[in-house]
């Protein structure tokens, strides 16, 4: 049996368990696709060819012995902010970094589920921006339009999945960094509850706003990877009650009250939802109404939530810069953000952290009237490669807020959100919408996303492979 690039995570796991294909053969094909696409898509910072083949052979021995695990022998990728034993963790930065000694907790759990980690995907410097470019690795390109970014900061993971190089990948989301690239590459992206997928060896990443999440072509695959990666290190400060995301796929959510939230949350500079993106999101709202849900326009009471985000984000960058082995090689915008973070790292940061419980109460009250929020994931389609790369810090912030004003409040709250594909612009660029819920609502969001997927069949639409990788795509 030959599995082509359209085979998803669950289908691949079933084929391996049935003995229809070997992990070694799958990983060999995966590595060939990655190599063929690297010159055009540039999704990977590190490819673990030799190690992955050895892990595949070990998986084949387990499969032959009758061992069964959820992802035994399945090739997946992780973002290069996650520790993989024996590999460096550069997190988008320039310089030669030493290999780390141990897997991070999320990677350890993927391995425990049997997954083969084929490589680490590109991300912008310390995951700050909604594009995946930089002097450390060049530009990662969008498989739907190589002249455009796949988004960021999990752009390498999104590009790898969208191009069919791997069936699913882990990313991280601190201000939309899973959901934004998912929207811009026509993928499902799950940002889970804070603590659902451990960020250890950091108990909190970027003062608690960043979580690890999943990218895949289907809801079932994104949920399967989420379940495999979920769980906590013994020292994790956030330990939410366990959920079974995979069991929610295909389960009827019942008739829900859905708030269509089109107004951008509080931002310091102007942000405007482009009409073409608005149209796609409203079409999804109409589809949900046709499925029997009550949908009405209503915006969560965000207030000045942005005032609590900036101290946490910039203090997190300051922490990373303080640890950086090559500070002279860092982007000037990174250094500027770190300076601000040091200024805000005392009383403003403490006030921002205290405000979270107030926000939980106020915005949580919104969910007494509504079950789910449907909002744009971004206000605009993906920008062109290079459009934000050389901007000043202030100009970059303005451009980011203009394009991506919708995702970050849920990082302050620590609650789950799921990007679903919302279609394409007239120029063929993907855009998305996010389903947002209160604490521990991943199962409900997965149910609604799967209901939409069953209607829209977005996973059946693929970008054309670049000429250089077509021979390896089969």
UniProtKB/TrEMBL annotation:
Amidase domain ranges (all copies): 26-445
InterPro entries according to UniProt: Amidase, Amidase_CS, Amidase_dom, AS_sf
Gene3D superfamilies recorded: Amidase signature (AS) domain
Stated family: Belongs to the amidase family.
Protein name in UniProt: Amidase
Organism: Streptomyces coeruleofuscus
